[in-house]
Write a structure and sequence with these properties.
The protein has about 325 residues and is an alpha/beta fold. The chain has two domains: about 190 residues, Rossmann fold (3-Layer(aba) Sandwich); about 120 residues, N-(1-d-carboxylethyl)-l-norvaline Dehydrogenase, domain 2 (Orthogonal Bundle), CATH 1.10.1040. Helices cover about 40% and strands about 20% of the residues. The protein is built from twelve helices and twelve strands. The chain has an eight-stranded mixed sheet with strand order 5-2-1-6-7-8-11-12, sandwiched between helices. Helix 6 packs across helix 9 and helix 6 crosses helix 10. It binds ketopantoate. The site of ketopantoate has 11 residues, from helix 6.
Amino acid sequence: MTDHWSILGAGALGCLWAASLRESGRPCTLILREQRLQEITGHTTHLEPELQLVEANRRQRFTISITDRHHITAPIQHLIVTTKAKDTQQAVHDIAPMLTDNAIILLLQNGMGSQETANSLLKKCIVWAGTTTDGAWKEPTDSAYPAQWTVHHAGHGQTWIGALSPEQPLLPSSLAKLATVKRLSIHPCDDIEQRLWLKLAINGSINGLTAIHQCRNGELLTCPERWQQVNALCEETTQLLLRLNIGGDINLQAITREVLQRTANNYSSTLQDVSNGRKTELSFINGFLLNKARQLGMNLPSHQALMEQLKQRGIQ
Ligand code: KPL
C-alpha cells in the first residue's frame, strides 16, 4: 500500500516535498495553520487546491489535499515536519494528539535545538531528522487564488536523513521508500547529528552576514571584507567543533567557500525571512553555537558581535 504522508508546514520546503511526492504519484496532505485554511475556505466554495512546481521553464500542476489540525479525519501515521525551527515546538505539540503510536516522523528544520525539543514531545513515535541542500522558494500567495501555491525548485541538492535516538537506528520501510521519490535525492545515514552540525556550522558563517549586508550568498565571497568576516566566523566555529569532538578534521572555510560558490545567486533563507518580515532562525543557528560555547566556558566574539549587530538592526 502507498504511504500517505502528511506535511506540517507549507513554506518553500514543505511545498517542494509535497510537489515532489505528487510528481512521483504519491498521495500527501498539506497541514496548514487554522487561520490559513479559514481564509481559503471562507474565500471560495469550490475548493480545488493546486500546487505548482516550477523548475527552469517547466511548470507542473498538482492537485493537493489540504487540512488543518482541527479537520484531520484519520490518525496520522507518516508526518514530515517542515515548519521553521522557531515554530516547531508549538506545531509538534499541537499535532501530537493526532499521531498514531509508532508514527513515523521526519523533522526537516534548519539549525539545531528544535529537533531535540520535538523529539522529547514525540515519545511514542519513531523520529528521524533530516538536513538538505535543496534550494527552493515560494511565490507569495495571490489573494485571488488563495488555494494555489507556487514553489520554485531553484537548485537540486542532497538530503540526509537519520534516526534521532540511538535506540531507533533501523530504517523504517516508509522512509526507505522516500528514497525513490524522483526529484529529491534522499540518503539514509547513521551520523545525522554530525551532518546537522556541519550544516549548522556552514549556515552560521553565511546566513546572518547575508542579512547584515542584504546580499546574495556569492557576494560574501567576492567582497574581501565580507569574506574576512566569513573566515572569522568559520574559525571560531571550528574551535567549538574541535572542543566537542565533532566533524573530525574538516576544513570549514573550504566547505563554506564551496557552498558560497554553488549557491552564489541565492538569497539565504535568513535574508528571505528578513525581506518577508518573518522572524529568522538565527537563534537556532548562531544562538545555538553561542549557547554551546557558553556551556563550555568558550567565547565566540565574532558570532557574539554578529548577533548584536543583527539585534541593533531589529533582526531577530
Ligand atoms: O542553507 C542555506 C540557507 O540559505 O539557509 C545556504 C547554504 C546558505 C544556502 O542559501
